[in-house]
Amino acid sequence: MAQYLISYTQKLSGEVMISASKNAVLPILAACMLTDEEVLIRNVPLLSDVENMCRILSLCGAEVKRENRDVRICARHIHTPAEQEILRTMRASVLILGPLLARCGETHLSMPGGCAIGQRPIDLHLKGLQKIGGRILYEGGEIRAEGKLTGGSIYLDFPSVGATENLLMAAVLGKGVTRIENAAKEPEIVDLCQFLNACGARIVGAGTANITIEGVSRLHGTVYTPIPDRIEAGTLACACAVTDGSVLLQGARSDHMRALLFKLQEMGMILQEDEKGLRLRGKARHPIEVRTLSYPGFPTDMQSPMMVAACQVNGLSVFLETIFENRYMHVVELGRMGAQIRVEGQLALIQGGVPLKGARVYATDLRASAALMLAGLCAEGQTLLIDENEHLLRGYECLEAKLCQLGGAVVRTS
Ligand code: EPZ
User: Fold this and answer.
1) Does residue 241 share a domain with residue 106?
2) Residue that terminates a domain, selected from 160, 192, 224
3) What does pTM read for this prediction?
4) For ligand 1, what atom is nearest to the CA of residue 26?
5) Ligand 1 centre and the CA of 74: distance in Å?
6) pLDDT tens sequence across 10-29
7) pLDDT at residue number 263
């Protein structure tokens, strides 16, 4: 259990280093099981989701060694994990499905659970595997996947990030050519494809809706550094927007953050990109409209931090969450602080300009927890954020320490 005491902070200033992307590192770690040679992943963030994925790879028989900020992996002999309880604790564990099927020709995994933000089905993953030669059976809460993958054409009804990643990893080994249409275009997809191509895969079209994978007989090892975390950078950018800041986000890739940065500029922030990263100045002053979409649209992971910025400005802001069915749980907690937000289905109407007041609030999911920490920075008095399931530690590397580094009054009290 983690608790954070956050006090009103007038200004944030200074510079902070952006960590590598959780959502790039997780599929890349899974993809290390596609080669029997050693892989070194550099600058791997210290996150509980990452440690869980490393534990899952070990359960699959891979040798996994953390060396400070690097992780060395050798998946010479891999197998389906016997112990599968851990798979239920992390949605991203479904990403071992593609590599295990590609390397072993069969696997059986317990159905990944949903989570607070939605049911999180994997029908698109499974339908895609069937299109390229996989056979899928459901047995008592488990998925059994088997068969020699021989390539084919897949159309994704929705540009699912996880489905695109699983299918990419399933298709890189073996014979045949696989085409994925309506693929996800997130920067994390591009990073996974760059990693796989660095291991000898033949993938073209990453970052577009149409990706073609030519199967190869085997992959070799490599040394790879994942991209910076655009959601961590975006969260810190929103922290600047709610506290009238002047900050440098070192290493941030603004080309991965265009939709968010346009919205922050619409709200009145001043942005400057230079070789060191992304500089932001000023504070949110104008209401906005936000519709979450697949990349390059506004990222759903930035919806809750952005809503805190909308609470700060006079006027009505309108949010439409189109990706997950239950991603407004932070609204109840912001309401405890005096926020005037009305949710109508996937629509949220934020009547901003009402000063937030410190309160005892509860973390419900990863990004909502970060949003509540930002709310504490701009609320009068003190806010106690109770994070019973340590959501924050799953996806942010010492967020409270980074905010402190910028002058934020945030202390982890347990
Ligand atoms: C990835 O989740 C990210 N997680 C999420 O970040 C992110 O919010 C999401 O992509 C959207 O950008 C990781 O990369 C580890 P999806 P993923 O498959 O792959 C539906 C965070 O906070 N869907 O694109 O699970 C699904 O229910 C996390 O870092 C199906 O219906 O997202 C959802 O409504 C949260 N069937 C929508 O698509 C499927 O087979 C988007 O899901 C797959 C997905």
Assistant:
1) no
2) 224
3) 0.98
4) 15
5) 28
6) 999 999 999 999 999 999 99
7) 98
Q: Which residues are CB-neighbours of 203 under 8 A, at least 6 positions away?
A: 168, 172, 193, 196, 197, 211, 212, 213, 214
Q: Whose CA is nearest to atom 17 of ligand 1?
A: 162
The total domain count for the chain is 2
Give yes or no for residue 52 CB within 6 A of ligand 1: no
Average pLDDT over residues 194-221: 98
Looking at 224, 257, 283, the residue that finishes a domain is 224
State if residue 92 touches ligand 1 by the CB under 6 angstroms criterion: yes
pLDDT 10s digits, 358-384: 999 999 999 999 999 999 999 999 999
Residue 275, Cβ neighbours under 10 Å: how many? 4
Which is the catalytic residue, given 104, 115, 398, 404? 115
pLDDT digits (tens, 9 = 90+) for 134-184: 999 988 888 999 999 999 999 999 999 999 999 999 999 988 999 999 999
- 115 catalytic per annotation: yes
Domain holding 338, by residue range, is: 2-18+228-412
